Inverse folding.
């Protein structure tokens, strides 16, 4: 389960770093409109990943883990 990597605080540091790297890249390539838009899109998709993961996927995984322990 890929979502388990988010439990490890060291690995979870990569998401904000990736987000900042994409925004930094967008600033660095602001003269190239296509590259800038793609970098911003990547940053938005990373943020969307976290928005979807925590309120929806994480509770579902916790529920499934509880069912596995009770069996």
């Amino acid at each position: 389960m890929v979502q388990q990597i988010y439990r490890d605080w060291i690995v979870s540091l990569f998401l904000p770093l990736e987000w900042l790297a994409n925004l930094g890249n967008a600033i660095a390539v602001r003269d190239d409109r296509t590259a800038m838009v793609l970098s911003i899109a990547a940053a938005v998709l990373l943020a969307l990943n976290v928005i979807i993961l925590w309120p929806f996927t994480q509770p579902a995984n916790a529920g499934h883990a509880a069912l596995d322990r009770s069996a």
About this structure: The chain is about 80% helix and 0% strand. The chain has a mean pLDDT of 80. The CA atoms of residues 23 and 61 lie 30 Å apart.
